[in-house]
Amino acid sequence: MVRDVAAKAGLPSDFLWGFATAAYQIEGGATADGRGPSIWDTFCKIPGKIADGSSGDVACDSYHRTAQDIELLQKTGAKAYRFSISWSRVIPKGGRNDPINQAGIDFYVKLADDLLAAGITPFVTLFHWDLPDELYKRYGGFLNKDEFVADFAHYSRVVFEALGSRVKHWITFNEPFCSAILGHSIGAFAPGHTSDRTKSAVGDSSREPWIVGHSILIAHAHAVKIYRDEFKARDGGEIGITLNGDWTEPWDPNDEQDRIACDRKIEFAICWFADPVYFGRYPESMVKQLGERLPTFTAEESELVKGSNDFYGMNHYCANYIRHRGDAVVADPDDFSGNMDILFEDKFGNSIGPETQSFWLRPHAPGFRKLIKWLSDRYGRPKIYVTENGTSIKGENDLPMEEILEDDFRLEYFRSYITAMAEAVAEDGCDVRGYMAWSLMDNFEWAEGYETRFGVTYVDYENGQKRYPKKSAMEMKNIFDQFVGKV
Ligand code: PNW
């Protein structure tokens, strides 16, 4: 007899759930108390780069409103809050011989203290894309591995020292894929490099994304070593890297090439960073396709990078259909996806999920469970924190505020994705320990400016930055109450 058996779903009783943000997207205070510019401050000034011509100059003004933000977190019942540190607030010029800005340090120390006083566990990201502009001007930023690694190591040490035992969960880098590909190949993100072979610090610009990725991996590993050697015993925290990655389904489920391409897509997006971190080497599919454009690890580097995660930080939003492109174009130097097309519809015209305000984001909750399992299988069941998950809503920004606050689409997204995650834990035996929804509030959505809203809180930018919790903000606790303590 065939019958439908509902999957078991549950999460551990000490599960940490809450919300995430990033410095440049919410803080504002661009020149406050000695902050130096980052590559995003510069990038936003280039006409045409940001959809609405805006910038993070003011954003949600969180630099001056942390008390309000913490109150908001408390209202939702959140147990954790992920924020990032603006490197150029702490060291305005960024470098290891440049002056440290005490006011910048004080801001983050107080933020951590206030969160702890409110009973909220801080998750701190050291780098969420806002590289000090000076380091880009000085030596090309990520493109100069040795300089970048030394400066990031110094910055990390300064922050570890200052925040100390207040922080038990550190994230080195957020989504290096985006810094590498969107920043150094597509040009949609700062510093806006595109594949123009004639104008590159490294000669051939089609090498840039892989060099950027390599530098970030080495910088991550150095920061982890510093934390483990100098701070872990004293402060008792853990440290890892956060990687983005979507689930993949074959365009034609009966075509083996499409099925193979699905795994290859994940390797090019995620394993690019995760394989070095867990295995000390790049995925074979990347080595094969990219050839000498992919940097190689020295034995020493490989040793350093291997094992450099105490946990896996997972950012996840959506899924796509994948169609193998045919072997003829394998050598395309600008192909960063692994020789495939990334599609919203399968061979039969089925859509992977409904449209949102973000061109790349189509919700498909079953893919979340599958990807958690896929990663758990590949990397030996690591401890996972979901460090971002969320959605925008098509046309949300054009609605009157009352309607924006009734964000049922987002609520349903969270309900289905969190259920899928709870199934990955209870049914598939994956070790997910925390979940931070993106985002605590509407904010500066990078190249999309303020037109795209990801917040569970509406921010009224025109009227004193007032915050209004949406329905999804207040329902999150109910969703987690259903699952927490059930495994
Ligand atoms: C993440 N894409 O970025 C970031 O970590 C957040 O800062 C951001 O606000 C959030 O997702 C929502 O976009 C991504 O184009 C941005 O595929 C763009 C893409 C993926 C991730």
Q: Can you give the helix content as a percent range?
A: 25-40%
Number of beta strands? 13
The hetero molecules present are: 4-nitrophenyl beta-D-glucopyranoside
Largest sheet: 8 strands, parallel, barrel
Question: What's the helix count?
Answer: 16
Task: State Rg.
Answer: 21 Å
Proportion of residues in β-strands: 5-15%
Unreliable stretches covering 5 or more consecutive residues: none
Specify the overall morphology: globular
Strand order of the largest sheet: 1-2-3-4-5-7-10-11
Mean pLDDT value: 96
User: What distance separates the N and C termini?
Assistant: 28 Å
Structural class, judged by helices and strands?
alpha/beta
Sequence of secondary-structure elements: EHHHEHHEHHEHHEEHHHEEEHEHHEEEH
InterPro entries: GH, GH_1_N_CS, Glyco_hydro_1
Pfam families: Glyco_hydro_1
Catalytic activity: Hydrolysis of terminal, non-reducing beta-D-glucosyl residues with release of beta-D-glucose
GO molecular function: cellobiose glucosidase activity
Describe this structure in words.
The chain is α/β, with parallel strands linked by helices and 487 residues long. 40% of the residues lie in helices and 14% in strands. The protein has 16 helices and 13 strands. The chain has helices at residues 23-26, 39-43, 66-76, 87-90, 102-117, 133-139, 145-163, 176-186, 208-235, 256-279, 284-290, 299-305, 366-379, 401-405, 408-426, 471-483; strands at 16-20, 80-84, 121-127, 169-174, 238-244, 247-250, 312-315, 319-324, 340-343, 383-388, 431-438, 457-460, 466-469. The strands form three sheets. The chain has an eight-stranded parallel β-barrel, surrounded by five helices. Strand 12 and strand 13 form a beta hairpin. Helix 7 packs parallel to helix 9 (208-235), helix 8 (176-186) packs antiparallel against helix 9 (208-235) and helix 13 (366-379) runs parallel beside helix 15 (408-426). The chain is globular, with a radius of gyration of 21 Å. 54% of the residues are buried. Bound molecules: 4-nitrophenyl beta-D-glucopyranoside. 4-nitrophenyl beta-D-glucopyranoside binds next to loops. This is beta-glucosidase.
